[in-house]
Write a structure and sequence with these properties.
The structure holds 2 protein chains of 2 kinds. Chain A is mainly α. Chain A is built from 8 helices and no strands. In chain A, helix 1 packs antiparallel against helix 2, helix 1 runs parallel beside helix 5 and helix 2 packs parallel to helix 6. Chain B has 18 helices and 2 strands. The chains are: A mainly alpha, B mainly alpha.
Chain lengths: 213, 434
């Protein structure tokens, strides 16, 4: 039970992080928390093998999006309005999971609903970093779906799920690279030139002009 | 041994194409296609169990795989001479392997959904791989997001069905059915869930042809797997009526949009969407999805063919900054074989008789004949409006031109082969169905 609570907390934190901080810096952290939470959820019910596969997949995906450490300061502003929207989605997901449980396990229900709701929200309403996280949330929900609904998945299904997640991560990373290559470069700071507009030129008095003449 | 072979052959071809890029990769890709068809035609039919999952290929799976091979043939033929299409060949073969994996693992429907997401992710490389001629990152991202949502909907539907079967949990069948329909509708680009296709066809018509072609084949697999034993099949009559009416109306709307669309690639995308909506309306007829599967296959192949012909005629994809170049003016006189293939593909897309597209529509209309309703009329009206949209392209195709007749190229023959398959399927469908 304690492990499930920790897993839920990690997944919720993973869903909140991109909503709080917009940008690519939050993506690896969110994904790391997500897969750690999924691994903790799979550990007691499905064994160490399933948890290790989830961790390995998550490690690979986090590695694909690994970026330099986030720069604190002006560029790392929290977005409180976005967070409030995400909070509404999370509350709705948790409420739906408690009111209409599907899997019979509160942990699995909450995590699946949180991943699907937050994933859809980020996919449909966010910019590239959030769309990336949202897409991976949707795919990662398959980890819990396949292990908690119906019979245990075969090795082929487990392998294909990991492969699918890695393929999606690689595709999103490629789009990120192409997007950054095609983005307009920021203008370089240049020395200020004297304004050509005569209205902005240093004013001279009429007496001085008359004296020159 | 056939089941593992049809997955392994394109995989091996993709690996070789990726390791040895260049002109020779095109020949390797064609050889991989020929090997795939040979395995399908002459391979020994025995089942195999790999990593705990049973793999077997049946008659429907063979038909789907042949359609997928023809779609990949269109893509490879139209990009044979392009140096920047190096990344597209391994991606196309990888996606073909994904369709093969889905086709041979129908015993486990979850594999189909996972194969769909893998195919979608791999095709993203084909969409943005062309240097200066591929889709924009935003369009490719939108495509990947929608395909992920489709695969997720299919996976949730499959798992809800499995949960109901295992534990008898109530309240799962209706969401399972709805999510399944949503997933299929996104894969076949049925309006209003077709937002990923028009821009894709406009910016990267080759990638769009590959995407709609192979994802249509994957949808055929998912439908075949679901109709074999799904507890949500006997859905109440009112839900079926909504599905049928919605599909018919959406088909009419999509055909209208195609009529008003000026860019040829976008117009073809909406015509494809109209055909997809007719196929969705066919799901309301009853538990048998064979007419819908047939129509989806005809739509996928015809769309890939017309987009391939458009590319070969000179339309290389446009962005919002560049001007439109049609390239189909007088095509029937400049390159008769290419123009004929384009005409056949367009006729099949709008459901003209003697084409594969007509057979699917006819079967769906026949199944509605038992009870009077307006859905056959909606399908007929959608076909008429689509025909008006196609008439505009016919005008450009048959426009008089003073240019000389260009020599026949191998790509013209390849596209004519695909067109011939649509004609044969339309004239003697029993030859393929039995």
């Amino acid at each position: 039970m304690a492990i499930s609570i920790v897993a839920i907390a990690l997944v919720i934190l993973a869903a909140v992080l991109p909503g709080l901080f917009d940008g690519w810096d939050a993506v690896p952290g969110a994904l790391a928390l997500l897969y750690l939470g999924i691994a903790l959820l799979l550990l007691p019910g499905n064994g160490a093998a399933s948890a290790l596969v989830a961790l390995a997949t998550g490690g690979g995906i986090v590695g694909i999006f690994a970026v330099p450490a986030p720069r604190f300061g002006r560029e790392f502003r929290p977005r409180w309005f976005d967070l409030s929207g995400m909070a509404i989605a999370l509350v709705g997901a948790v409420g739906l999971a408690v009111a209409r449980p599907v899997f019979g396990m509160v942990g699995a229900d909450i995590i699946v609903y949180v991943l699907i709701f937050s994933g859809l929200l980020y996919c449909l309403l966010g910019r590239s970093p959030r769309v990336t996280v949202g897409t991976l949330f949707l795919v990662a929900s398959g980890n819990v779906l396949l292990t908690h609904a119906g019979p245990a998945p075969t090795q082929a299904v487990t392998l294909l799920l990991a492969l699918g997640q890695l393929c999606v991560a690689l595709a999103l990373a490629r789009l990120r690279v192409i997007e950054s290559e095609r983005a307009p470069r920021p203008r370089e700071a240049a020395a200020l030139e004297p304004p050509a507009d005569p209205m902005l030129a240093p004013q001279t008095s009429l007496a001085e002009e008359a004296g020159e003449q | 041994m056939t089941a593992p072979l049809v997955v392994a052959v394109p995989l091996l071809g993709a690996l070789i194409c990726a390791l040895f890029p260049g002109a020779r990769a095109g020949r390797v890709a064609i050889a991989a296609l020929i090997g795939e068809v040979a395995c399908l035609s002459f391979g020994p039919s025995t089942s195999a169990i790999i990593l705990g999952a049973p793999f077997v290929i049946d008659r429907t799976g063979r038909l789907i795989l042949v359609s997928a091979c023809l779609v990949v043939l269109v893509t490879l033929a139209t990009t044979a001479g392009e140096k920047q299409a190096v990344g597209l060949r391994p991606a196309a073969l990888l996606a073909l392997a994904g369709v093969a994996l889905a086709s041979v693992s129908v015993a486990d429907p979850a594999m189909v959904a996972l194969a769909v997401i893998t195919i979608g992710a791999v095709l993203t490389w084909a969409l943005v791989g062309h240097a200066g001629a591929g889709a924009s990152p935003r369009t490719a991202q939108r495509y990947l997001v929608w395909i992920t949502i489709a695969a997720g909907a299919l996976l949730v539907s499959v798992q809800f069905t499995a949960l109901y079967t295992a534990q008898g949990t109530t309240g799962l069948l209706e969401p399972a059915a709805a999510l399944f329909i949503v997933g299929i509708a996104i894969l076949i680009a049925a309006l209003p869930l077709s937002f990923w296709l028009p821009a894709l066809c406009d910016e990267a018509p080759v990638g769009g042809a590959l995407a709609i072609g192979l994802l249509g084949c994957a949808a055929m697999v998912a439908l075949s797997a679901a109709t074999s034993a799904s507890p949500w099949q006997p859905v109440d009559a009112s839900s079926r009526a909504v599905l049928g009416a919605g599909g018919g109306l959406a088909a009419i709307l999509s055909a209208f949009i195609a009529l008003g669309e000026k860019r040829p690639a976008r117009s073809l995308a909406f015509l494809s969407g109209a055909s997809a909506d007719c196929a969705l309306a066919g799901l309301a007829t009853g538990p048998s999805a064979e007419p819908t599967v047939w129509l989806i296959g005809a739509q996928a192949l015809a769309t890939a063919l017309v987009l391939g012909c458009l590319v070969e005629a000179g339309h290389r994809g446009v962005s919002s900054e560049r001007a439109i170049s049609g390239g189909v003016d007088g095509l029937i006189w400049r390159r008769p074989l290419l123009g004929t293939a384009f005409v056949v593909g367009l006729l099949s897309l709008i459901g003209m008789p003697l084409t594969a597209g007509f057979v699917g529509r006819w079967e769906i209309v026949q199944s509605f004949a038992a009870r009077p309703n307006a859905i056959p009329l909606a399908i007929l009206l959608a076909s008429v409006i689509a025909g008006l949209a196609a008439l505009r392209m016919f005008g450009s195709l048959f426009e008089a031109t003073e240019g000389p007749v260009e020599p026949t190229r191998p790509v013209d023959l390849a596209l004519c082969l695909v067109a011939a398959s649509l004609i044969v399927a339309g004239i003697v469908p029993g030859l393929i169905l039995r």
